[in-house]
Design goal:
- With 402 residues, this protein is of the alpha/beta class.
- It has two domains: 7-79 and 379-398, Urease, subunit C, domain 1 (Roll); 81-369, Metal-dependent hydrolases (TIM Barrel, Alpha-Beta Barrel), CATH 3.20.20.
- It contains 16 helices and 15 strands.
- It has helices at residues 60-65, 95-102, 107-112, 117-126, 129-145, 161-178, 200-216, 234-246, 263-269, 283-292, 300-305, 314-320, 340-351, 355-362, 364-369, 394-397; strands spanning 6-9, 17-25, 37-45, 48-54, 68-71, 76-79, 81-83, 148-154, 181-189, 222-227, 252-255, 274-277, 295-298, 324-326, 385-389.
- The strands form two sheets. It has an eight-stranded parallel β-sheet.
- Helix 5 (129-145) crosses helix 6 and helix 7 packs parallel to helix 8.
- The longest helix has 18 residues, at 161-178.
- Bound molecules: N-(iminomethyl)-L-glutamic acid and fe (iii) ion (FE).
C-alpha cells in the first residue's frame, strides 16, 4: 500500500516481484540523484530493489514477471528517511518542566534538582509495558507519516535492569507493530539514577554488567553514553565504552551538548559510529572524529527547545569532510519533536545546512550513523524503503514547516 504521503517499506512482502510505476523519483544516488526523474519506475523483489529507471526502459523479461503493480501517479518517491537518534520509549511527559524553563529555570538546574531525565525515569518505571508500547507506537507512526522508515530507539529512562530490559523489548516490538526498521541502542548511561546519587561509579559498574545480558538476548545494536556534567564523567564514559567494545558492540556518544567535556574525542578513539549534539565540539574532537570516520549527528530540536545559542561547528565539520546526519532526538524533555523533515528544516535554518546536506543527513549519513550501508539511497541491491510525497521536489520536504 502506498500512503498519500509518508514512509513505507516492502517488509514482509515475501519474494514477489513488485513494480512501482509512474513516479517522480529522487534516488539520492550519484551526482544527478537529487532532481526528480519524471515517469520512472522501481522494481522490487521482496524488500530489495532490483531495477529502477525510466518507465519505457523497463526490460521486457522483468515486465512479464511482475506480480504486483502500484501506480505512483506522478507522486514524488524518495528513499525512506532514517531517524538515527530518538528516545521514543518513555512514560509521562514534561510540559510542566517546559513551563518552568520558559520562566527562566535552566535545564541543568532542573536536572540537578532531581527533575529532567530523572522525572521521566520515575514515570517510565511506573508505566505498564502495554502503555509504553502503545505510546511508543503512536510516536513511531507520527514519524512514519513524516517519511521515516528506519528509527533508532535508545533505552535510558529505566535505569534499572528490569525497566531498561522492558524498554529495549518494547523498542523491538515497535518495529514489528509499525512496519518500521528499528535499531536499538543501550543508553543506560543516560543519567545517574537517584538511588545511586552518591555512588555514580557503582551504577556504571552495573551498566557494564548488564551489557552482556542484553547482547546475548539480541536486544542492543549499539551502546551510547551521555558524557556531561549532568550525565557521566569522561572516565565513567570510558568504562562503559570499554565494556561495549569488549562485546564487539559499536559506540555512540551524547557529546559536547551543554559544555565541552572531550566525549567526542574519547568516543572517536573507540571508533564510534557517531557523536551526537556537538554544540561545543572543539578542534581536537573534530580531528579525532575525522580520523575515525565518525558521523556527526546534529539535533536541532534540542538546540531549539533549550534555546541554545552556540550552534555546532558546521563549517569546520564540512571542511574536515566529516559526514553530517540530522535526527529528531525525540524525547519528552529537550526535544518533543515528531517530524524528521522539521528537524531537517531547522538544521538548514539554525545550523546553515543546505537542503541537500539536510537530506543526506536524514538518509545516507543517518544510515552510516547506525552502521548501515543497505539503505538511504534508491539503487539496485539496496532496501525497498521509500517515502512518498505530494510534492514536486525533495527541497520542499525541508521547506514546509510540517
Ligand atoms: O539527547 N542529552 C541527553 N539526553 C537527551 C535529553 C533527555 C531528557 O531531557 O529527557 C537528549 O537531548
Ligand atoms: Fe538524545
Amino acid at each position: 500500500m502506498i500512503p498519500a504521503t509518508g514512509g513505507f517499506t516492502n517488509m514482509g512482502a515475501g519474494d514477489s516481484l513488485t513494480a512501482w510505476r509512474h513516479g517522480r523519483i529522487t534516488t539520492l544516488h550519484g551526482p544527478d540523484g537529487w532532481d526528480p526523474k519524471e515517469a520512472w519506475s522501481v522494481l522490487t523483489r521482496g524488500e530489495i530493489i532490483v531495477w529502477l529507471g525510466p518507465d519505457h526502459q523497463l526490460p521486457k523479461e522483468l515486465r512479464h514477471a511482475i506480480e504486483f503493480e502500484h501506480n505512483l501517479a506522478g507522486k514524488l518517491l524518495t528513499p525512506g528517511l532514517i531517524d538515527c537518534h530518538t528516545h521514543l520509549v518513555y512514560g509521562g511527559k514534561r510540559d510542566a518542566e517546559f513551563e518552568m524553563r520558559l520562566s527562566g529555570v535552566g535545564y541543568e538546574e532542573i536536572a540537578r534538582a532531581g527533575g529532567g531525565i530523572r522525572s521521566t525515569v520515575a514515570a517510565t518505571r511506573a508505566a505498564s509495558r502495554a502503555d509504553l508500547l502503545g505510546k511508543a507506537c503512536q510516536r513511531a507512526r507520527r514519524l512514519q507519516n513524516t517519511g521515516v522508515t528506519t528509527i533508532e530507539i535508545k533505552s535510558g529512562y529505566g535505569l534499572d535492569y528490569d525497566t531498561e530490559t522492558v524498554c529495549l523489548e518494547v523498542a523491538r516490538q515497535v518495529g514489528n507493530e509499525c512496519g518500521l526498521s528499528v535499531v536499538t541502542t543501550c543508553l543506560s548511561a543516560h543519567t545517574v539514577p537517584s538511588e545511586f546519587s552518591d555512588n555514580a561509579d557503582a551504577y556504571v559498574d552495573l551498566v557494564c554488567d548488564w551489557l552482556p545480558h542484553w547482547k546475548a538476548q539480541g536486544l542492543i545494536d549499539a551502546v551510547d553514553a551521555f558524557c556531561d556534567t549532568v550525565g557521566f564523567s569522561l572516565e565513567q564514559t570510558r568504562r562503559v565504552f570499554e565494556s561495549a567494545v569488549r562485546l564487539g558492540l559499536p559506540i555512540k556518544c551524547h557529546a559536547e551538548q551543554l559544555s565541552l567535556q572531550g566525549g567526542a574525542a574519547l568516543a572517536a578513539s573507540y571508533g564510534a559510529l557517531s557523536c551526537d549534539h556537538l554544540e561545543y565540539l572543539d578542534d581536537v574532537g573534530i580531528a579525532a572524529m575525522r580520523a575515525s570516520g565518525t558521523v556527526a549527528v546534529l539535533l536541532p530540536g534540542a538546540y531549539y527547545t533549550l534555546k541554545q545559542t552556540t550552534p555546532p561547528p558546521v563549517a569546520k565539520l564540512r571542511q574536515a569532510g566529516i559526514r553530517v546526519a540530522v535526527a529528531t532526538d525525540h524525547n519528552p524533555g529537550s526535544s518533543p519533536l515528531l517530524s524528521l523533515p522539521l528537524a531537517g528544516n531547522m538544521a538548514c535554518t539554525l545550523f546553515g545546512l543546505t537542503p541537500q546536506e539536510a537530506w543526506a543527513g536524514m538518509t545516507t549519513n543517518a544510515a552510516a550513523a547506525l552502521g548501515l550501508t543497505d539503505r538511504g539511497r534508491l539503487q539496485p541491491g539496496l532496501r525497498a524503503h521509500f517515502a512518498c510525497w505530494e510534492l514536486e521536489h525533495p527541497r520542499e520536504v525541508v521547506y514546509w514547516l510540517n
